Amino acid sequence: MVRRSFSACREDPVNSSSRIVTFTPLGRSASANRDETLLDVARRAGAPLGNSCGGIGICARCRVRVLSGAEQLDQPTTIERQVSEQRDLDPDERLACQAIVCGDCEITTGYW
Ligand code: FES
């Protein structure tokens, strides 16, 4: 699901960076297309992620823990910040449906 009409990531148009998402401990990985979220990439990689709001950022069932590369995800949206506070997410957790992949990162969940 691409949800923004502009690119959320600063990219060097000449030296396009890698955007590989690794799903641990599933042992799967996939490359993110421009402006794709972690949830988009997880679906393509066959990494099951909970979600019940259709990816609009309100259910928090897609929460993931970022093991590395947190700086490679775009900044949380206003809705993500609000839901994270309401659901008491840890600082290293993100909503996969809201986090756009800008570079390599590794994520996990408690149910993989
Ligand atoms: S799918 Fe509901 S918050 Fe991400």
Give a structural overview.
By secondary structure, the chain is α+β, with helices and mostly antiparallel strands. The chain has one domain (20-108): Roll (Ubiquitin-like (UB roll)). It has helices at residues 38-45, 78-86; strands at residues 20-23, 28-31, 63-68, 93-95, 105-108. The two termini are 22 Å apart. The protein binds FE2/S2 (inorganic) cluster. Residues 51, 53, 55, 57-62, 95, 97 line the site of FE2/S2 (inorganic) cluster.
Structural shape = globular
- How many structurally independent domains? 1
| Annotated CATH architecture | Roll
Characterize the biggest β-sheet.
Answer: 5 strands, mixed
Bound molecules: FE2/S2 (inorganic) cluster
List keywords for this structure.
single chain; Ubiquitin-like (UB roll); alpha+beta; 19% strand; 112 residues
What's a quick, concise take on this entry?
The protein has helices spanning 38-45, 78-86; strands at residues 20-23, 28-31, 63-68, 93-95, 105-108. The chain has 112 residues and is an alpha+beta fold. The chain is 15% helix and 19% strand.
What are the SSEs and their pairings?
Blueprint: E1 20-23, E2 28-31, H1 38-45, E3 63-68, H2 78-86, E4 93-95, E5 105-108
Parallel strand pairs: 1-5
Antiparallel strand pairs: 1-2, 3-4, 3-5
FE2/S2 (inorganic) cluster binds next to loops.
